[in-house]
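Protein modeling request. Please complete all fields; requests missing the sequence field cannot be processed.
Requester role: graduate student
Desired output: 3D structure, token encoding
Chains: 1
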Amino acid sequence: MNLQIQCPACERSFRSNDDLTGKTVECGACDHRFEVNIHTIVHEKERFYPGEHQDALLDRLGHSPAVDGAPVSFQRAQYSPQVSASDTMPSTPAQSFAVAAGVILISLFALIFFLGSSKGQVFQDVDMNKRLLLGGFVSLIGSGLIVAGAKTWRNRAILLSTVLFIGVIGMILLRPVHMTPKSDGEFAASEKAAESIETEVNLLDTEQDRYLNRLGYGTVERAIQKETNVDAGIDGRQRVVAVYLHPVKASVVYDLEKFFERRLSIPKTNTVLTYERENGNARLIVLSGIAESFDRVAEMSSELGRVKTLPSKRVIDIKIDTSLFAEPGGDSFQQLTDPLNERFSEANLNEMNHISIERIENAVKRLADMPPGSTLRHKPDIVAKFLELLRQKESGKEIDSAIGRALSTWAPQDKEVATEVAAIMGVRGDNDQEIPKSIVEYLIASGSPSVIALIDRMWVKDPTSWSEQYQAMGAQAESRLAYHITSSPLSVKKAAAVLLRRIGTSQSVPALRAAKGSGDEELKILLNVAIEAAGSR
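Delivered output (537 residues):
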């Protein structure tokens, strides 16, 4: 049975004898009858095994040269140690959360640092060492979370953590460090301004004549001549400085005049003279009788804009920085007015350096009215600025009064500051200038020993207005009031008797009795009442 046939109906194959060729057979599977012929006989393909050549075509392809086989060496198979089932298990939710938390922590810090390292933001005044320390700590915590959570891909987790760590440190190193300038009561820009002025000296010499004609130098010459006193050895050139400002709008001329009046020692007999130039687009301000040097005036003028100087003619040319007069808006306004803003103190400190007396006054008032518990940033610089404003002339009663209230917030019980304030007020008293009550109240609260003399000086001039402050001193003022009972004019004696009735003790009784010899009946009544009240204490 070496013949293989296939039923054309069901395609089943069978083995049969060769003698069935040409005969009709019946399929054992489907009972279909068919003839065994060339169409139903299945021809088998020839099979070849390696090394056999049963085809003439293969013989024509030639033989490969016989090559001795290379020696084969065998090694003993090494089996891996037994793997823990936990190593093949997928990550738990806690592990996935740890990885996500680590990535988010590092990414969030990078975002906050990038946005917060700009000027005036949360990383203002944070030096590079502190930034690197903080960034390294956050990156270390985040990397630890990533590696701890990546149980089945630990090597890749270490690589990811390293990349994130390097990225954070690199960003910290590349971002600029913004530090708030420190000052000791002087303007922070003064050093920079001096360098600017030095490079500009004598830049006007080449066009001197034309320039002097344009600004009307004859006015300056007349002021120098007026200040000169040959007999007294006074050189008027050392007492006069001309400031040429451009471009200038009429609305800011008053602020410019007050700026120089506050900052310079100009005698009351002299006035700041302002002349219009260039069809109202420029102003010539002549400052006469000043005690400050030409270089000091030039340095101060640099706060207004770009400065050029002509020392031989006592002229300072200022190209005004018009941005100084722009009203704050948007974020700047919010920083100035919101005490909870991180830049509130800094913004108002800068505003107190403005040339506008109105804007300075508003800044001082905002600092004086800060809510209790507010963060007092830039405290040394702000207190130093308060003292500087108190030293300036023509600052204004409103500013002085606001400074008194502000000092109660920014420098309470500060003996050093109180001593400085008392000294400034003492000079004012010597010059017969008014002393704000808020300043006196601050000195009383600070326990300044000089405040009694200040109160007494103001009380003698106006007992009605200053009795409350005198009374606040209590027994400390008793001896001075007793002196007034015996030695002052009648109106002052009466006011002293009223105060001693309120705060006097038995120590004041002898002086009160000695004053009863006065012929004024009203005073006698006040003295009797005071003796009775003081003797009972």
